Amino acid sequence: MKRGVDIPALVGGLVTVGLGLLLLLDRVSVLHLGFGWLWPALLAAVGTFLIASGMSGSRRQ
Amino acid sequence: MTQPPLTQPSPPPPQPPRPKRLLRSRTDRLLGGVSGGLGSYFGVDPIIFRAIFVVLAFVGGVAFIAYPILWIFVPRDDGFGNPEPLPVWRLFGGGGGTPPTAGRVFAVLGIVLAALVAAAVLFVLSGWVTAVGGGVIVAGVVVVLGLLAIGGALSGRRAARWLVLPALVLALPSGIVAAAGVKFEGGYGERDYRPAGVAALPADGYKISAGSMWIDLRDLHLAPGTTTKLPVHVGVGEATVLVPENVCLQGRAKSGAGVVNVLGHQQNGFDLDYSVGGATSSSPRLQLDADVGMGAFEVVHNPDEARFGGPRQSFGPPGFHRDDGDRFPLTNRACSVGPTG
What CA–CA distance (Å, rounded) separates B47 from B39? Predict the structure, then answer.
């Protein structure tokens, strides 16, 4: 049986890649990651994951 | 012949309403169904409780304690509004409500403890590697974990979402270290410097990775009209610089997170950047370039004005509190009033 795409894992992965890229860009001095960026970025990441999980959960129901 | 009684059997007495009970939801759940259960219990959207847990996770990490406790000790809904046996029994392998064996309990506790220790080690290691210049490696691992999660998601593996957890454990300390600008250079512990002259100043400045530093420059005897550079770097910790009153202090002091207090002008919080300039006198100038990752940095004239650590530690004049800030401004008068200015 073909399994469908797991949306929360997909969004979580995309968000993780985004966070990793932000860190990478800071380390190679393309941008400066200050606390003014960090907290909103982390909250947005967690929030996006929660929304994706919630939407996926309500679709299952 | 006897006739059966014509009276109908009386209906069963009405059941008293079942008391409302907090149960974890088995359908509306992201992790353990705690928020779903709370939402159902209080009759509100569970997203409210999810948001509260997220906020509490960032405010002192309360959610990291509260959520697991609720997960363990609040029974799950069996689908008919009745509680299932406590999850802690199922967690330990005692199905059907039967208590697990002692060996099983120790085994599970050992696994949980090992996972927590591994997460703590990963957390510290990630921050340390980033601080010593290996942030690219940490960022690369986070990206790879994300790509693995994407790959797993596309092949329909629900378990792939758990890869996000170690990625966050790695990304969070690395992000904090990067945001604060923490760099580990120059050793650890307590340092006490009292250079006797300009020649004794290190060319690349005073550096410490983690710890406290006390730099007493009152014996420098700088000549009028000269400018002496003073780079100071602190990764995590505190540094106190004592400058003579006849020296005009110029330059800047930055801190990712903590306190910067330059001659009584105090800033607290994140991304601090204090600069002082505009000297008009010909007093000897000290060009400060202080860079603190996380911690405290201060410039004072005398040891008894210092508010932070150091070998001659003092917490200020009587009645002084660390948060008083500008209540005790010192002077930088040498910048406007000098020997020939």
Answer: 8
